[in-house]
């Protein structure tokens, strides 16, 4: 690796980018446009909201109550737990969206004339989904109450609301969808930069014939790829700064976690995404082909399958399996963790590891795939 | 003696070099040798396999079979080593249109790892040599064809390689640029640089020390310009001047002893086995037709005559299937 060559290539690429107003505009306006556009919420239909339960009572009455959630297609019970620490972890790590805690005296309360305070804790990060899920939970409880009340003509129950939901929303108490969307957008923006800008960089040189001259020199594949990578990396990081600033000062999205972690994780993801773009460019050899491949293989899957547009737990099983192959899935989770919960790469180390693997693999592949040969 | 040792080692040497693209053979087992410090012309019509050969020599294409060395390095295995020692100018213009003249030179200086001082020196030398002082700060896109080619040559020789490969450097450029190119080429060869140059301008071949003629992937003639005109060209050339020359070509070709006739601007060059017999039969034909205003002279064949007759000979021996 020779730094002089890397610098020569990076510098050349930089000049070409700034002389091409279209690509420059694309690179710098994308974050602005997307963040403004997505300031509005996406409305979604959901099923299978993950639900964790702590049944402190464990009597026939409490099991009967839980059965109403079990039978609802809107909820999927992921397990039963018996302490707050575990439940808290589940929420933190995004393994569950909702937690239901039935008090110890559930059945005793039920047959007294007091309301039973059932506790419901909700991850409000994704405000849309959370709002809808809360609505479902309320309606399940309402139906249960109605049923009990109808029966009460035979019993001596006079309370029309035997069960009261004690709701608590964590992470995004005010249900602000933008708080949820802006972090996700960072992943989308980075993928677009990679897909639309980088994917052309090698293909363009083959198309224009400049590659033939370049590969006749002693330049190494790694020098060429890294040199091409650097200016786009800079654009991606500038986009990150734009997104964070726009989010914070225009849309008032709070950043609870560490800014440094945000940058480290973004740099990691960006490395992988750009390498993927360069890899596509290398394989395609024509600009048209490259841009189509980029949209199909990186941009669309990221947009649809990363959990940005649609909740992953809400997808069919087979599609859910596919989402594990989408690097943005892990990145978005980390981004939301950092933004909304003040947790990041240490708590979400499996996700961070996946990102690391993705970017190392992709950059090696891009360098490896580039051959200094015609054909 | 001195000459001998300087030329003793081959700069380029290939044996049975072959390149196929699917079922099509672009280069058909060619063998030749280029001595150090030589200007070696690689001539042939469109599609003959010139670019394919030059790309194999520069390590850009892997040969299908055969063997060879460039600067002592194996063209099958050491392609990256070869790239450290050569300069290459591809047939299609291949510098960056959206960079200025200086930026292109600067880019290739970086690629060739010239030091800051070397870079500044070479930048001035190359710009001066190519005569592009007036365009230094212009976008390359804005240059006309000839100036682009001059810059491309400059970038290919920035690092002072010992062997340079030029693929049709003069195609489609003005006569002044062509003259400029050949003076640069000769000047480099004078310093001991080996120049491998392809062209389909036959008149340029006179500038070469040695040359080969490639046709349909096969080498059909090889030698110095002198050898080409004497040893290789066994036939004689008669220059025929006659009014309405173009109408006479077919008639002359059908005469006994005349192998071929081709129009050279206003005259006809005929290839005959023997000058005396040939001119007698041509003159007889003119007399019979009542033409008086004619002349038939034996001339020294030009390289173009040699090439045309070599190609026709090859075509006769290898009729298309
Ligand atoms: N990559 C390729 N795939 C298939 N055929 C090819 C390829 N490259 C060259 N050819 C064919 O090989 C033959 C020789 O091509 P080449 O470019 O070497 O000719 P050339 O002598 O340089 O001609 P020109 O004067 O037009 O540049 C041509 O018929 C060409 O179509
Ligand atoms: Mg060619």
In short:
The complex is a heterodimer of chains A (375) and B (321). By secondary structure, chain A is of the alpha/beta class.
What report would you give on this structure?
The complex is a heterodimer of chains A (375) and B (321). Chain A has 375 residues and is an alpha/beta fold. Chain A folds into 2 domains: 49-170, abc type-2 transporter like fold; 176-369, no CATH class. Helices cover 64% and strands 9% of the residues of chain A. Chain A has helices at 3-19, 21-37, 60-70, 84-92, 106-111, 127-151, 177-208, 210-214, 221-249, 259-284, 287-305, 317-323, 327-341, 349-369; strands spanning 49-55, 75-80, 98-102, 116-123, 163-170. Chain A has a 5-stranded mixed beta sheet, sandwiched between helices. In chain A, helix 6 (127-151) links the parallel strand 4 and strand 5. Chain A is elongated, with a radius of gyration of 26 Å. Chain B has 321 residues and is an alpha/beta fold. Chain B folds into 2 domains: 4-223, 3-Layer(aba) Sandwich (Rossmann fold); 234-317, Alpha-Beta Plaits. Helices cover 37% and strands 27% of the residues of chain B. In chain B, the strands form 3 sheets. In chain B, strands 6-7-8-3-9-10 form a 6-stranded mixed beta sheet, sandwiched between helices. A 4-stranded antiparallel beta sheet of chain B has the order 2-1-4-5. In chain B, strands 12-13-11-14 form a 4-stranded antiparallel beta sheet, sandwiched between helices. In chain B, strand 4 and strand 5 (73-74) form a beta hairpin. In chain B, helix 4 packs parallel to helix 6, helix 5 packs antiparallel against helix 6 and helix 6 packs parallel to helix 7 (175-190). The longest helix of chain B has 16 residues, at 175-190. Residues 1-8 of chain B have low confidence and may be disordered. The chains are: A alpha/beta (375), B alpha/beta (321). The interface between A and B is medium-sized, with 28 and 34 residues. Adenosine-5'-triphosphate (ATP) binds at residues 21, 24, 26, 44, 46-52, 91, 200 of chain B.
